[in-house]
Write a structure and sequence with these properties.
Distance between the termini: 63 Å
Number of helices: 28
Number of strands: 28
Largest sheet: 8 strands, mixed
Shape: globular
Radius of gyration: 28 Å
Structural class: alpha+beta
Strand content: 15-25%
Helix content: 40-55%
Length: 863
């Protein structure tokens, strides 16, 4: 047996053979308290006893159950005791001579996790309290209890948990404590990866939701929200509950299917690898969504979007689940779309589509141009493939395509299709065709052709306007030219709005005409706009209806260079910024030109989320795409511009906060670093800028990276903020110091040891890879290629991904680094496909950066 990496073929065979009637899972986590491992050199463990009732279509057949555990005490199949040393190989339990009806009992010692996979154990450095939570997707419930770990073998679950007396325990169903045991109501049939246990002395707040439907029935949903006790002073549970209730109302209005899982708890947990996870009745979130300091409106909007994304999963993913991870998009794309759709439709964040266009789509465009790009409906051979496909294509491209689908079939037909889908497949599993069939019913459209173009092909198209004027200066013909990369030549049908813009007498850049058109093939004429006055700007994907890279004709680009800040429509402006960034990444616009545009116009940006995205893009332009010879000049100009905007921003505004954070990220000269130090020490003031604890750590990182803040300064700051968050910040700042010894220590802690938790691995890597320390990091390029295969084989997949992605020598921007990457790939053709994919993606980013630098250098030589 191939061990942990379950293949699609194995899952199909097992699903054809077995049907699961139910699970009883008993966990004893009292061992979570105390220091150190359970025995010298061995992992700390807990007892897990699982009873599985299941049927076999072919009595006498052999199959297997999944379990990853240090040891198994006993295995019983249909009352027959099996020898664990014979049937258990560390990841699977062989089940021979199955009956028609079977009962499997497995008594195991499972390991607590420090990597965020399985049952994660966290010790709060602030008060010594221990907190537990589970995280399983795609296949880590087998680290906690024996099961059949694949999404199409759904079953009801009953959990019971023995925990320390002072703790509270939560699971998917409602729980009660009796005789020292927490027992939970049986769930509806659900997949293993969305079962959940949360345990510890969490701070817990309650509320309730009530809804009376048209037929007179009333639905009551108990609501709960929790976090570590140390975060309780910052926990704005009222706002979380507000968005939760707004979301439940919205989805009840649109889905016509009552929330099916009883209670609705939301846990904000430490050291979480993901943004959140849609466990029915017990959603888990990363605790960074509880804000310890002042943040911008964009942070609250982002949290609301995640709350609503996970809520949409209660229907798309939990109620109706994909058969296998090929159709992961059937839940993630829908939840990503629905999160923004509900944010706009139900909450105070009415401009969430702007964030989607500017931020989420940027993630999709990058992923869709990597060598590892794949169709939205992907070819997922095994669990490692599945883990890596939680990416920008499955989430953001899929959501973008659904937005295009809504424009294609109409919102009413789309939502009616969803309603039929839920009712037809409740508590079951589906494939692509199941969704397409209901959409064909409700829309009358042929979904086959749409699906082949949008869901079953990879790559992103570019749409460019062509404008011909007549003798009177009016539009004689306006066409949209569609192009595709040679590697993915599919030209798709696009429903787009083409907007025409001119400057008004007052100087505003505003739309004066628009037409919606179906773009087909390489060139589409927009007949509706013939005869319009000559535009100064043509925006092909106005209103952001489709998924494409927008290009500009020469007149439009010249207008943006002169007047981007005068564009009054915030969505149109965000789309133009996104298009300009894509041109920079594609080496069509020099990085210095993009930086100049940011310096000229970002100070006038009204949407705070767009502003923060511009800051990230400007920084990336300098680090990856600017010609090395110009980079010091660019860094100085950006630091000067950021400080200028910081001082000019309204006192106490979120723009001021955003510019302060950006200034800290680009500060490098003695005067800039002196200002940051003065702001920390109180000798410098900027009116309205509250340097709270989170902002203090933001200022300390560049001071540490440039050798101004040493270990004693960072130790003093940790004493001031002796919390889990403070520890992560300190670890990152310690690794950022410009010293050979520091870098060697950080490398050893991440690569040669598994002592650090997932959160501290992430913090160490972040501090290690400082763009200002390229020469200091150069020796680690060769070391990286020497160790990554070993790291991948020895560490969990999450830590392996963090190391392979985070330590790739992408700051060593040279042909030599590219050659070294190619040499590793050539010499490791048999390496794990998931590992090769990560290296190929990093190589592509490096090559793209080098092309961008050539473009930027050429601009200097022709200036």
């Amino acid at each position: 047996m191939p061990g942990e990496n379950l293949s699609r073929d194995e899952a199909r065979e097992r699903a054809a053979l077995l049907s699961v009637d139910g699970y009883d899972v008993s966990l004893d986590v009292r061992s979570a308290l105390g220091d150190g491992p359970s025995r010298e050199g061995e992992p700390r463990t807990f007892r897990s006893v699982t009873t599985i009732r299941f049927r076999c279509a072919e009595p006498g057949a052999t199959s297997f159950a999944d379990l990853i555990a240090p040891s198994v005490t006993a295995v019983s199949l249909n009352g027959r005791d099996l020898d664990p040393s014979v049937v258990f190989d560390g990841s699977r339990i062989v089940l021979e001579d199955l009956a028609a009806d079977n009962e499997l009992v497995v008594d195991a010692q499972c390991a607590y996790s420090r990597t965020g996979e399985g049952l994660h154990r966290f010790v709060d450095p602030e008060d010594g309290e221990v907190y537990l939570y589970t995280q399983y997707e795609p296949a880590d419930s087998r680290r906690v209890f024996a099961n059949f770990e694949q999404p199409d073998l759904k079953a009801p679950f009953r959990f019971e948990v023995r925990a320390p007396r002072e703790w509270t325990v939560w699971s998917n169903g409602a729980g009660q404590l009796a005789d020292g045991v927490w027992r939970f109501a049986e769930t509806k049939p659900i997949s293993t990866y969305i079962t959940c246990v949360v345990a510890g002395p969490y701070h817990y707040v309650t509320d309730s939701y009530s809804r009376t439907f048209a037929d007179g029935t009333t639905l009551q949903i108990p609501l709960g929200a929790m976090c570590r006790k140390g975060l309780a002073p910052y926990f704005d549970a009222d706002d979380v509950f507000l968005v939760t209730k707004q979301g439940l109302d919205f989805f009840h209005d649109h889905f016509d299917y009552p929330y099916p899982f009883g209670k609705y708890d939301q846990a904000f947990v430490p050291e979480y690898n993901l943004g959140a996870m849609e466990n029915p009745g017990m959603v888990t979130f990363r605790e960074e969504f509880i804000f310890r300091g002042k943040v911008t409106r964009a942070s609250y909007e982002g949290r609301a979007n995640v709350v609503l994304h996970e809520m949409a999963h209660m229907w798309f993913g939990d109620l109706v689940t994909m058969v296998w991870w090929d159709d992961l998009w059937l839940k993630e794309s829908f939840a990503d779309f629905m999160g923004t759709f509900a944010n706009v439709g139900a909450t105070r964040f009415k401009d969430a589509w702007i964030t989607f266009a500017n931020r989420r789509k940027a993630w999709a465009y990058r992923a869709d141009q990597l060598p590892s790009t794949h169709p939205i409906t992907a070819d997922i051979r095994d669990l490692q493939d599945a883990k890596l496909n939680f990416d920008g294509i499955t989430y953001a491209k899929g959501a973008s395509v659904l937005k295009q689908l809504v424009a294609y079939v109409g919102q009413d037909a789309f939502l009616e299709g969803a309603r039929r889908y839920f009712k037809r497949h409740a508590y079951g599993n589906t494939r692509l065709g199941d969704l397409l069939s209901v959409l064909e019913e409700t829309s009358g459209r042929d979904m086959g052709a749409w699906s082949r173009s949008w869901l079953q092909t990879a790559g992103v198209n570019s749409l460019t306007p062509q404008v011909l004027l007549d003798a009177e200066g009016r539009i004689d013909e306006l066409a949209v030219v569609q192009e595709a990369a040679e590697s993915h030549p599919e030209l798709r049908p696009h429903r787009v709005a083409v907007g025409l813009y001119r400057r008004t007498q007052a100087g505003a850049l505003e739309r004066f005409a628009q037409a919606e058109v179906d773009v087909e093939g390489p060139r589409t004429v927009v007949a509706e706009l013939a005869g319009a006055q000559a535009p100064e700007l043509v925006l092909v994907n106005d209103d952001d209806l489709t998924y494409c890279k927008t290009r500009f004709d020469e007149t439009s680009l010249a207008t943006l260079r002169a007047a981007l800040g005068d564009m009054t429509d915030p969505l149109a402006r965000a789309l133009c910024w996104s298009a300009l960034w894509n041109m920079t990444r594609d080496a069509l616009l020099p990085a210095r030109d993009f930086v100049e545009l940011v310096l000229r116009f970002a100070g006038r940006e009204s949407d705070i989320g767009v502003l923060q995205m511009l800051h990230a893009w400007a920084d990336s332009s300098l680090v990856h795409y600017a010609a090395p010879a110009w980079r010091p000049t660019g860094e100085r100009l950006v630091a000067e511009g950021a400080l200028r905007e910081l001082r000019a921003a309204e006192a106490g505004s979120e723009q001021q906060l955003a510019w302060a954070r950006f200034f800290a990220s680009v500060a490098s000269g003695p005067e800039d670093l002196g200002l940051l130090r003065g702001l920390l020490e109180g000798t410098e003031k900027i009116e309205g800028l509250d340097v709270d604890q989170e902002l203090r750590w933001t200022f300390l990182e560049p001071l540490a990276a440039h050798g101004v803040a040493d270990e004693s300064v960072l130790a003093a700051e940790l004493a001031r903020d002796d919390t889990a968050s403070g520890k992560r910040h300190q670890v990152r700042c310690l690794a950022a110091r410009p010293s050979e010894a520091v870098k060697a220590q950080a490398w050893a802690q991440v690569v040669e040891s598994d002592a650090l938790s997932n959160a501290l691995v992430e913090a160490t890597i972040s501090g290690f890879t400082q763009a200002s320390q390229r020469k200091l990091l150069a020796p680690y390029a060769e070391k990286y290629f020497a160790v990554i295969e070993r790291v991948w084989s020895e560490r969990s997949i999450q830590i392996g991904m963090d190391v392979v992605r985070g330590l790739f020598p992408g700051l060593q921007q040279s042909q030599a680094t590219l050659d070294a990457t190619d040499a590793w790939l050539a010499a490791h053709e048999d390496a794990a496909p998931a590992l090769r994919r990560l290296v190929l993606e990093a190589r592509d980013d490096l090559a793209r950066g080098l092309r961008g630098q050539e473009c930027d250098a050429s601009a200097a030589s022709t200036a």
